[in-house]
């Protein structure tokens, strides 16, 4: 089922389209939450630190081909709004070839460079072996993750957000079950946690690929669509590369922060690993709402409906802000119980540091909610370079302040730097949007 976002009531259409995306990505978090929860409880804080640090690295790597898929998805939505089926099919072919080539190259490079990567992340000796063992297995799932992200972005760009949810639901349940089997029952340790995630990733990646091939034959290219088209490839290259840069810069900045966190030792690493899972889980719905809003903008941009874009923008910001206010209150109030979900109550130092992180960052979720909408807007109106600028402002401020403040007030300075970066980027993005309307 495809949603036509160029017609009907805006808020209702957006929420109906966004809800499966929210549910799907919340389920996706169970991949790493299951690892974190089971590893932390069964294998201890050093293993938790290893998995948490690996998660940050994998998020950065995934952001490369996710950015390519999201950029391509914006173009798919624009062609959908224009009702240009020939260009859509041609774009699907070009984007798939580009993204798979980048994925394979990336997969080879990370295996070759695993030791330099660990050195760059300043991984402590007591965590090194566990993190390396985890990464050697988890890297095998990169291709599966790329397949899933490409086809889910394709379906969502055309208005189908339900099917990606179905495949994620199956793989999330499978991941949790295999985690319990491989870590809690069988003595496979940290490698077992990674293997559980990889198997689940291939179930979702291959499953959604087969679905598109069998059920979406109208999207499959004909012989004519396989011909090289310089103009379409150029559009894909522009949108995808800039979105890829935006996603990569964002996660590379987080990776640099991870390196700084690692320098404070296993206790702070474990606190950061658990708190980031809670943090990501908390604001994931507004991130997905931002992606749904981006599809809405792109379809209406293709259809030339400027008034509908302006009205949808006002309604989307209001919805996002209301949600962020509620979730900020919940995270700040229940920070300690949330940390104890992932960390044993005996790990008092880990819990205390995680609570500080959640209460400092969690109070400002409106900042990240606004930023996700701005990313989606500029991607959809073919101004992905602006998203890169906002990311550089946000992450540049965050990284610089994290290193400066932590030298004086310890890890609390790292946590304080995050919302400051969001606010600076929001002010810039909103000001530019207002300027463009004049």
From TrEMBL:
Q: What is its main location?
A: membrane
The answer, when asked if Transmembrane helix is one of the entry's keywords, is yes
Q: Could you list the residue ranges that cross the membrane? A: 12-34, 54-79, 91-114, 134-151, 163-186, 192-214, 317-342, 362-381, 388-408, 414-433
Q: Where in the cell is it found?
A: Cell membrane
Does the record's keyword annotation contain Transport?
A: yes
Task: Supply the alphabetized keyword list.
Answer: Antiport, Cell membrane, Ion transport, Membrane, Transmembrane, Transmembrane helix, Transport
Q: Provide the membrane topology annotation.
A: Multi-pass membrane protein
Describe its function. Multidrug efflux pump.
Q: Which PANTHER family match?
A: FMN_FAD EXPORTER YEEO-RELATED, MULTIDRUG RESISTANCE PROTEIN NORM-RELATED
Q: NCBIfam families from the entry?
A: matE (TIGR00797)
Annotated family: Belongs to the multi antimicrobial extrusion (MATE) (TC 2.A.66.1) family.
- Protein name in the entry: Probable multidrug resistance protein NorM
- The species this protein was found in: Blautia intestinihominis
